[in-house]
């Protein structure tokens, strides 16, 4: 191997590791408020519906970020797009610190969503580019595992760190944001010297918003979105209403406990991604559907009966299934899209998935407003059953479309 080629691949490996860590930090910031919601509720007097509105505003910000900038790294470059997303999240952290009232919380969550909406497709495409550069003869398995683990694992790291800081550090609704403001600024500095993987276009093209393009066909795209929505529904439950449920129905009021429970769900999701790596698409989806169905059933029973152990165990099993399905979704989209429009394809996919998350979070909020937490969880279980049924139907249709037909 020539020295130049070895240096090229070495830079790809180093960059891959840096982007994976940076992606984890960027996503972790999006769930920092999760264990803090009961503190906000106690301080400002709002309830579960307001919490879900705050969460929905974040999801709307994610959608807006993806529509406006999720595809720009295909033309402007991965590195500048990722740095811009990180700086957007730094700005959101400063808003959390300077404007702690409810309007400031809503605005900061929207700005957070803008950053995450830009960072998610950009970092995912960047990881795939760097993986291809570092290991040109290797399959996509390592990229799929690392990208989804950074995404889902970050969702769990945020509540864990924020819960511990809120429980044991001064200024519980300020310190977590100050810590992450420093981490995000450092992440932007580490991204700046990384190698760029997108060649400059021969001539500049005018700006356009994200186009809706379903690479691989509508059935495959529907299959991927059904996978993602099923997983994100579980993630949405545990990053919006679950801390309040834990505090009221299970009588566990410590932010550290709420953060640890949410972290357990997302740690199980990462474990599901790792364990499902050797499986084929059909087996992977079957495992995810079964785990989510069993886990969410246990969560509902644990909530209704007031059994914390069953609630936590069900959340872990549901998280394992959600991570498995999310990994399957990202793999389907990333493998079906050409390299020059990879970020655009991923942005379209995440756009559809997060639109579904907005509907889920608002529905949970309305249910929590109209009835008890236990009944709202039962309604959520029925909604998830519909999503999983849609996933099974899409998977069957996609496999039938791919099956060779006799001459």
What does this structure look like?
Pfam families: MFS_1 (PF07690). It is found in: Cell membrane. It is a multi-pass membrane protein. With 407 residues, the protein is mostly helical. The protein has a single domain, classed as Growth Hormone, Chain: A (Up-down Bundle). The chain contains 15 helices and no strands. It has helices at residues 3-30, 37-44, 48-69, 73-76, 78-98, 102-134, 141-168, 175-191, 218-240, 242-248, 255-275, 281-305, 308-336, 342-370, 373-402. It is globular. The model has no long low-confidence stretch (mean pLDDT 85).
Fold blueprint:
Layout: H1 3-30, H2 37-44, H3 48-69, H4 73-76, H5 78-98, H6 102-134, H7 141-168, H8 175-191, H9 218-240, H10 242-248, H11 255-275, H12 281-305, H13 308-336, H14 342-370, H15 373-402
What's the gist of this structure?
By secondary structure, the protein is mainly α.
Q: Might you state the CATH topology name?
A: Growth Hormone, Chain: A
User: What does the radius of gyration come to?
Assistant: 20 Å
**Structural class, please?**
mainly alpha
Helix percentage: over 70%
Oligomer: single chain
State the helix count: 15
Task: Output the CATH homologous superfamily.
Answer: MFS general substrate transporter like domains
In the predicted model, the low-confidence regions spanning at least 5 consecutive residues are none
Order of helices and strands: HHHHHHHHHHHHHHH
Number of domains: 1
Give the DSSP E fraction (strand runs of 2 or more residues): under 5%
Protein name: MFS transporter
Membrane topology: Multi-pass membrane protein
Keywords: Membrane, Transmembrane, Transmembrane helix
Domain Major facilitator superfamily (MFS) profile: 14-400
